[in-house]
Amino acid sequence: MPALARRAMLMTAMFEKVLVCNRGEIARRVIRTCKRLGIETVAIYSEADAEAPHVKDADEAVLVGPAAAKDSYLNVEAILAAIKSTRADAVHPGYGFLSEKSGFARAVAEAGVVFVGPPPEVLDAFGDKMKARHVALSAGTSPVPGTDEPIAIDTAKGIAHAKEVAAKVGYPVVVKAVGGGGGIGMQIVQDEAGIERALKSCSDRGKASFADARVYLERYVAQPRHIEVQVFCDTHGQAFTLGERECSVQRRHQKIIEESPSAAPFFQGEAGEKRRQDLFDAALRVVKKVGYVGAGTCEFIADERGTLFFLEVNARLQVEHPVTEMVTGLDLVELQLRVAWGAKLPDLSTLVRKGHAIEARVYAEDPSKGFIPKPGPIDELSWAWGAGEVQSKTLRVESGVSAGSKITPFYDPMIAKVVSWGETRQQAIAELDRALAGTIIAPATTNLSFVRKVLASEEFVTSRYDTKFAEVLAKRA
């Protein structure tokens, strides 16, 4: 961001107290920026998180319920009571939990408090995969070919239509729960014989997991790359992209390593730059269609030829936002707060992205056993470069735990995000590997060694892999 524009934003008024409606590393991340801006912070916590670092970081902290997320971090009544009792004038939802729940955003607004995120009607527009698909189609951005309405699985006509669409787009196809995520309620179908059974299975899973039995199908992309575009919009009609991130190193449809820019072969050369610009234009068409406000991510999937299809919009800050910050020099949380206050974004259309950044998620899990979570104590935690959250221009760690913490079975088992930056991708890989090599986390079982194995692999170094790569690599001797 140009210095004058940044100074102008800093001179505007700002919130006095922000309640951070989350936990772990993202809560600490938001609190850190608030402190820098002179904003008081309120943490919420469950009984299991009473001694968590994010609680100690904040100026105030409020207990919102027992360990289970449904009784604490998803307890809207308790959170609204915390907002009222602390007299917070804004709520930052982080990611996950209530961050994309339009009902919560409306309740916050009705309480006279600012929700630091897109308005409820925008959250409604991207509330499930089918709604997002309709927005993309109306904006002239192509989703993966498939059904444009939920399939009526309880009628012969509905099943016949599903088979007709599947035959048209070509097998294999994938059946998806409309409200699904993280691979839940999703099944690959190789031929017509498996269609009806998959539709019923995914519908049942969607109903059980998301209280939504609707399903649809689309062409299965056999060797996909997962590419996403960071967007930012304000209340003054401005919309910008801040570059793309590659998130194709995944397990169980969840990301492990993210980087910016993507080094995929189809983004190389003059033709690659045009494809990248077309991708940015497609993302902007989607968010402009619904009057988007704040930070968001348009997710796309690329096939083996580099054809990019729209998937969905994550109407919030992403876990992997630090890689964008490392290559742009921006503080995305600060921009979120400024936009929520009503400030106009500076002109980001000429923003220059510098170098290459890679983020590795360090989890308490066992890659050799299907990446199963491994809750337990963390008695020793030592980063290669010493203590602290932001170390240097080339290395950054964001963690929700400290020595003496415990990874519980109640929440995601992520320990930290380690982010590296280099003038080149090769330098960023080397810097990240050096940092991970010197990291000590004991006695917890972690994916540290596996992440280093990914970084050293020929597939990753040459950027010739797809979203199945990590699970295949984990099975190698």
Please explain how this structure is put together.
- Residues 14-475 form the Biotin carboxylation domain.
- Residues 134-341 form the ATP-grasp domain.
- The protein is an alpha+beta fold and 477 residues long.
- It is built from 16 helices and 22 strands.
- The chain has three domains: 3-116, Rossmann fold (3-Layer(aba) Sandwich), CATH 3.40.50.20; 145-219, Dna Ligase, domain 1 (2-Layer Sandwich), CATH 3.30.1490.20; 225-474, 2-Layer Sandwich (D-amino Acid Aminotransferase, Chain A, domain 1).
- The chain has helices at residues 3-10, 24-36, 53-57, 76-86, 102-110, 120-125, 129-138, 156-169, 195-210, 269-289, 321-328, 332-341, 425-437, 448-456, 458-461, 469-474; strands at residues 17-20, 40-46, 60-65, 90-92, 114-115, 173-177, 186-189, 215-219, 225-233, 239-251, 254-260, 294-302, 308-314, 356-363, 365-366, 372-373, 376-377, 380-382, 395-399, 406-407, 414-422, 440-442.
- Helix 13 (425-437) packs antiparallel against helix 14.
- The longest helix is centred in the middle third of the chain and has 21 residues, at 269-289.
- The radius of gyration is 22 Å and the shape is globular.
Instruction: Give the fraction of residues assigned to helices.
Output: 25-40%
Main beta-sheet strand count, sense and barrel state: 8 strands, antiparallel
What shape does the CA trace take? globular
CATH topology of the largest domain: D-amino Acid Aminotransferase, Chain A, domain 1
CATH superfamily of the largest domain: ATP-grasp fold, B domain
The CATH architecture term of the largest domain is: 2-Layer Sandwich
**Overall average residue pLDDT:** 94
Tell me, what is the CATH class of the largest domain?
Answer: Alpha Beta
Regions with pLDDT < 50 over 5+ consecutive residues?
6-11
Proportion of residues in β-strands: 15-25%
First CA to last CA: what distance? 47 Å
> How many structural domains in the coordinates?
3
Number of helices, counting only DSSP H or I runs of 4 residues or more: 16
Q: Which structural class do the helices and strands define?
A: alpha+beta
* Spatial strand sequence of the major β-sheet: 13-12-9-10-11-14-21-19
* Total strands: 22
